[in-house]
Amino acid sequence: MDAVRKIGNHVILSLELWFNKGFPHRLNPFYHLGSLTFFFFWIVLVSGIYVFIFFETNVAGSYPSVEYMTHDQWWMAGIMRSLHRYASDAAVISIFIHMFRELFRDRYRGVRWFSWFTGVPTLWLVVILGITGYWLVWDQLAQYVALATAEMVDWIPGIPSAMVFNFLDNQITDRFFTLMAFLHLLGLPVALVFLLWTHVSRISQVDFNPPRPLAIGAFLTLLALSLLKPAVSHAPVQAGHSPVVLNLDWFYLNIYPLMDKMGPGFAWSLSIGFTTLLMLLPWLPPKKEQPCAEVELTQCSGCGQCARDCPYGAISMRKRTDGKKAEFEPTVNPTLCTACGICSGSCVSSSPFRMANATLKSGIEMPWFTMDALRQEVQSKLKALTGQGRVMVFGCEHGVDVTTLGRPEVAVVALPCSGMLPPSMLDYVLKNGADGVLVTGCRDGDCYHRCGNTWTEQRLAGEREPKILKRVDRARVVEFRISDSSGERAALNQRLDAFRRSLQPSA
């Protein structure tokens, strides 16, 4: 599995690097797949409501009503029908890319198993929604879908075998058709909303909306596709005749040709087997997590910044239990904590200037990498710096390997997330031997721990607590975020060399 992830990760990073050449980094679609999917669902919802106004939910009227929208009112209802179709396809594409990206970037195991596990059934619901949507058009493709679905359901033990013959004999009633409309328009969408809410319920700071320029661009692309290649129906249903030529939507109907060739038993076995494999992936093998964050109440002011910054909702505030004047204290849920260290960087008591001659204690710590251990590592590497243009580099373990940057004039410290870096550490480094500080990590919008690079950027800009001190010379502090790809490691080295040259005194 590690080999598969490594190969897949290389492919994903290569694609993202190519997209970064055409998009500003913050607008790369690969970094907003989840929010793009939600956006496509909104388009599907709005266009579906409009289409429903003209749609007749009965066997005799469904096809003529769709044809009326497609041809007689092509300038509005026809476009809405096409938007409904293409946004649905786009949602499937973004879901699958999102799924495989999380898999290859190793963001599905450990504490994150819940989001992955609850995301898999969402695929089933989305596909079933698409199938019922094609059914409602009641053209020859819908007839094919109805017959094939009935055959698959008929294969399940305990289901009456007469179901297939009902379809062959054109026995579908208006009541049954209304039931299908109810499932497509209300029942399945409500279930999908519940599953999506469950999918994101264990994470905080969820971004449901993509950046506005990306959303506008996606919408205009779908609109252009709807105008250039409008969605059209097949010929109407012919009772007693099976359709010969079909234009399948392979995003939703891919299982049916396979069933035609291999039979319903094989189709069911493949679908259930693939679904089971996906749901078990977080434990094949399981991820070994570092010990979760621990609260040190003697150093905690109860400000709640760690709870506001936690990307996974692992920290909550409760009534104080130690009798101090502060009203609240943080508590950590170990089943949600990823040990990213962002909370330690949020804590005002993480300042390395505190307890100069004693063990530094923070209000919330990573027991396997305390703030005191970080300060000691920084002190040790600062003492080893020589030459001109001395730079301390702080990097993220999930970004580029910063250890390759080490040299006599450059000291490097790898953190579990750049968000673990308290802004006061930059002041400390500059006051104790370094000429400059370079902070690197995951790409903007692509933080392995979701919010680490965003919070760091805001702290250094003075927009988020704890803020960088005003006395720090910002010209001596730079951020340069890249992905862990060979094509961008050279760029980091070039940026580091240029930064060092800018720090050296002029001849």
Mean pLDDT across all amino acids: 90
What's the CATH H-level superfamily name of the largest domain?
A: Cytochrome Bc1 Complex, Chain C
Count of discrete domains: 2
Beta-strand fraction estimate: 5-15%
Helix and strand string, N-terminal first? HHHHHHHHHHHEHEEHEHEEHEHEH
Radius of gyration: 28 Å
Helical amount among residues, as a percent range? 40-55%
What would the principal axes of the Cα set say about the shape? elongated
Structure characteristics:
507 residues, alpha/beta, Cytochrome Bc1 Complex, Chain C, 2 domains, four-stranded parallel beta sheet, two-stranded antiparallel sheet, 8 strands, 7% strand, elongated
Structure in words:
The chain is α/β, with parallel strands linked by helices and 507 residues long. The chain has two domains: 2-236 and 246-283, Cytochrome Bc1 Complex, Chain C, CATH 1.20.810; 294-503, no CATH class. It is 52% helix and 7% strand. It is built from 17 helices and eight strands. It has helices spanning 2-22, 33-54, 59-72, 74-104, 113-137, 140-155, 162-168, 174-200, 212-228, 255-262, 264-280, 305-309, 342-346, 371-383, 424-431, 452-460, 486-503, and strands at 294-295, 315-319, 328-332, 364-365, 391-396, 410-415, 436-439, 477-479. Helix 1 crosses helix 4 (74-104) and helix 5 runs antiparallel to helix 8 (174-200). It is elongated, with a radius of gyration of 28 Å.
